[in-house]
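> Could you send the DUF6533 domain-containing protein prediction when you get a chance?

Sure thing. Input:
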Amino acid sequence: MDDDDSYSVAIACYWHIVGVSFLYYDHFITLDAEINYIWKRRTLSAYFFFVNRYLGFFSNIPVGLLPFITVSTRVSVPDSVCMRATLVRQILLCATQVVVAAIMIFRMYALYGRSLRVVGLLLGVGAGVVGVVVWSMYDQQSTPSFLQGCHVAIMQTTHVFLSYRCMLLTTPSRAIRLATSWEGVFVLDSTIFGLTVFNAYTTIRRMGSLVNMPLHRLIALYISGWKVFLFSDAPNAFDSAMALANLSNISTFYLGAPLFRGALSTFASCMSVTLVSRLMLNLHESGDAGILTDLTSSIVIRGGRALPDDVVETRNVAEAVPTTPWSEAAVERKAPQPQPTDGAV
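Output:
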């Protein structure tokens, strides 16, 4: 193994550690919120939360520990065992992504007023993604070889199993085939992101407060973090971050060195699990329904305008408007209505 290969393997190892560290760090700092908002609720949303969080938690324990294990390179292990270890890791990655996708589909189901059409669309896209994943994993042709050093990775790059380290070398054509499975996940994430932005835009238009605001300004308003309207759970922020993580992993299959292809798979998977867990914690904090909380569950009407409860209780509309050059166009200020006197008819 030359210097370039050693460098690729080391960088892949570091990215695995970053992903796993991010997952476990966020798990422990949000454990109190999980206990308060999830553990006592026997709901479908709570069950989804447990499956998502703890499948990712336990399946990534070997990935987090094995880079620090030093073993003898004189151990003889059949190639078939290495291939099985690779397959198990891929199945766990697929299972994690399936759970994440199911949660986001349920979230879209709630955001669109429990529309079966939206669910049908997303299930159709999801079925296509499953087909692509099965095709990409079928009849894999890779050559196992054994190397020294830190070689923990996934998805046809470097794998550690028990007392030996095996690496699967993948041809460029094979890497492209493997990339299609992550591209399918990216398509699903992008579809959910687009549906969320469209739903937020049309809902605010219906409320009338932002009727004159162009789409690009509405998106800028959302990105800036203004939570006057229905962005308290920020679903498209979470989903866009997951899509970007998947996109970065896809790029390694096309642009990365042979030993770096797919090295960000663990990082992308950990990001997805963590962000979805955060989303669900935010939703459970604001309502018992969790991922099935609809758009209007935390919205109240004051003076013809829809505002979240916390905004209405602590600030008036004028105080809630962000100080931007176009803030005057966001909310029309109404003059206070005169109060009737005692002698009024």
